[in-house]
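During the no-cost extension, the postdoctoral fellow (Dr. R.K.) reprocessed legacy sequence entries with the updated structure-token encoder. One reprocessed record is reproduced below for audit purposes.
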Amino acid sequence: MRVIGEIDKAGYKITVFKHEEKISIKLEKDLLEQTYKFRSGSLVDNLASATHFVDLLLANQIDKSFESMSLNRHKTLEEMVQQKPEDFPNII
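Re-encoded structure tokens follow.
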């Protein structure tokens, strides 16, 4: 897998990869990431079409998706904290 480009948009780290004939677009924000993969013969097959895809994706409120991911992460971590048994040493 090799990097064929990076796209600088709206505070995201966006990297476009190519592996054989497949394209992957990875969007990163804080500690979260989303990856979109495309097979050969699809509309996304090079850096220019990947950039166009990202422009449309960002216009369609990708922030909501990242916000939902962040909320799910937070809720799940909170649940894990609540389920963790207290680990106090025995005092004699």
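The chain has one domain: 2-83. Residues 2-83 form one domain. The remaining legacy entries will be reprocessed before the final report is submitted.
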